[in-house]
Design a protein that fits this description.
alpha/beta; GMP Synthetase, Chain A, domain 3; 4 domains; 7-stranded mixed β-sheet; 19 strands; 40% helix; flat
């Protein structure tokens, strides 16, 4: 057997070992290869038995060279233009970005990475780090970059003749994201359109010395989705001024923090945005919170509640009155869960009133009030006035102080169903948080219906998730619950999820139901540990256990569960 055949068997065996190919498919491909004269890899690709990426991965493993998965990769304009177009086209490579003083480059031939690395370093005078990538991925990534640069061209052309310090004075009712009347309008619209299209909850615009940094919070993680041309750096102050103008802020005030809001229009849809501008040592930092009205369509069915937790919550909501709490840190989806709970019990014969800071989602069927601390209109003051209007259901945005806690509990005692939130780590400690606020423990035990504690984790992309073996903790969990499963899933990355391995988020929950026994523990001043032990007798499921169940179902991975519950 010649050396070439041995090499073919090695790559074939590597594909089989990684699970990309079966033994039978390999034998069939080898037989056809003898007749076609193709290389084994080419034969496998022609028969569509493996993907380019799987083949390249195994080849890189054999050669001991690094591979770059290009899904979701964005090219930095300054990195791309560090090499001339003729050389990029001739070699079929693509410069990606500057990382720790090195130029990262992708090239399709894993056997020639060292040669390309030396050539690029010589041409640019910058140390190069070259990775292997499939020709198709390189081509698609370059095409996305070219398309994006065509979008920037009119903006850059208009900015060439503009003074970076010239302020923009323009006031609008709603920002039309299809408007291209001026360079800065177009630039800001690109920023906002990218955020809306990627379902970002926040956009961070940060001045970093001489550089403009724009990041988007997608699925709870702040990402730099786009690499902006360096020509835009000197206009970063104009971008913030444009934002302050449309949010009706004072554009001349650059020493004090300011808050505002505005609305944007994309196609036929409108999106409400909250703007916060805070001065830093390098200039003003702006954060845009984007509110999506479709979030109001979330029901208990699609909040991520497990079947068991869903049944518990549904039973709690059948109570005629009482206090129901949702706990968790900022950004854990508490407001969404509260609105889903309220929607499940709403009917036109009931009067629903909310007191929030701020009112994030406007609901036509609810009477909504905004807290205003600047004039002394806080949660307690508003709640006292609202009770005179005899509502049936009350949402208190957050219980922050003794007076609000006391009034919320008293409202629940007098026949109202009260929803609110607390900042506690778990469901059982929320009970003690109320008593720490000097609410009488007998009142707490009488009015508390239940508590939902939650965290948000990233949802695995179903198109590219990978099977992995269970670690020891998951094995013990599966054995304890008699689950016959020896595998879980982890993130990979593909075009559908922009290379992140995740699409969207889902909740991990624990639901504490106040039973007679738990009420007795509260009355006698028991600890959160006592409440937990009693709840376990009634099949209480912790957030971590709920997370493990969702890991085994392939909805998320253990990395995500560890991140929020460990």
């Amino acid at each position: 057997m010649c050396k070439e055949d041995e090499g073919r068997l090695r790559i074939g065996d590597a594909l089989v070992k990684k699970g990309y190919l079966t033994d039978q498919d390999l034998r069939t491909a080898l037989q056809k290869q003898k007749r076609s004269g193709l290389r084994l890899g080419e034969q496998l690709l022609e028969m569509k038995l493996v993907t380019e990426e799987a083949l390249l991965e195994c080849l890189c493993d054999q050669l001991g060279v690094p591979m770059l998965h290009m899904a979701g990769v964005e090219i930095s304009p300054s990195a791309y233009h560090s090499l001339n177009e003729e050389y990029i086209t001739e070699k079929g490579l693509v410069p990606i970005d500057f990382v720790q003083g090195e130029l990262v480059v992708a090239h399709p031939d894993p056997q020639n990475l060292k040669i390309i690395e030396d050539e690029v370093s010589h041409k640019t005078g910058i140390k190069a780090r070259v990775y292997a990538a499939t020709p198709n991925d390189i081509m698609k990534t370059k095409a996305r970059f070219k398309q994006r640069m065509r979008t920037f061209e009119p903006v850059l052309e208009q900015l060439k003749n503009e003074d970076p310090d010239r302020e923009i004075v323009q006031i609008e009712k709603a920002v039309n994201l299809d408007d291209d009347s001026s360079s800065m309008v177009t630039f800001l619209n690109l920023v906002l359109t990218t955020g809306v299209q990627r379902k970002a909850t926040d956009i961070y615009i940060r001045a970093v010395q001489e550089r403009l940094e724009i990041r988007y919070r997608v699925d709870g993680v702040a990402l730099e989705l786009l690499k902006w041309p360096s020509e835009l750096n000197q206009h970063k102050e104009k971008l913030v001024s444009r934002l302050k103008t449309i949010a009706n802020m004072d554009i001349a005030e650059k020493r004090l923090p300011q808050d505002g809001k505005f609305r944007v229009k994309l196609g036929t849809n409108y999106y409400d945005c909250r703007l916060s501008v805070v001065p830093s040592i390098f200039g003003e930092n702006a954060v845009i919170r984007i509110l999506y009205k479709e979030m109001l369509k979330v029901t208990l069915d699609n909040t991520g509640l497990s079947n068991y937790s869903f049944r518990l919550v549904t039973e709690l909501l059948k109570k005629p009155h009482g206090l129901m709490l949702v706990t968790g840190p900022t950004g854990s989806g508490k407001t969404t869960t509260l609105y889903a709970c309220m929607a499940s019990i709403f009917d036109p014969s009931k009067v629903v009133t909310t007191v929030e800071d701020p009112v994030e989602y406007e609901v036509e069927d609810y009477i909504q009030f905004q807290v205003r601390h600047d004039i002394g209109l806080n949660f307690a003051t508003m709640l006292r006035s609202i009770l005179r209007q005899t509502p049936d259901v009350i949402l208190v945005g957050e219980i922050r102080d003794t007076e609000t806690a006391q009034m919320a509990c008293e409202a629940a005692m007098t026949g109202h169903f009260v929803f609110s939130t607390l900042h506690t780590n778990n469901a059982t400690s929320s009970v003690l948080r109320l008593t720490e606020m000097k609410v009488d423990r007998f009142l707490v035990s009488a009015v508390l219906v239940g508590v939902i504690a939650q965290r948000l984790v990233r949802h695995l992309c179903s198109k590219c998730r990978l099977h992995v073996s269970l670690d020891q903790e998951l094995k013990e969990f599966a054995a304890r619950y008699k689950l016959q499963q020896d595998y879980a899933f982890e993130a990979s990355g593909c075009d559908s999820c922009f290379g992140t391995g995740y699409i969207g988020r889902l909740g991990l929950h624990e639901v504490l139901v106040r039973t007679g026994e738990i009420a007795e523990i509260i009355n006698h001043g028991g600890s959160s540990g006592d409440i937990y032990l009693e709840a376990r007798k009634s099949s209480f499921v912790t957030m971590r256990e709920d997370g493990f169940l969702k890991v085994l179902k392939g909805l998320t991975d253990k990395i995500q569960v560890d991140r929020v519950t460990a």
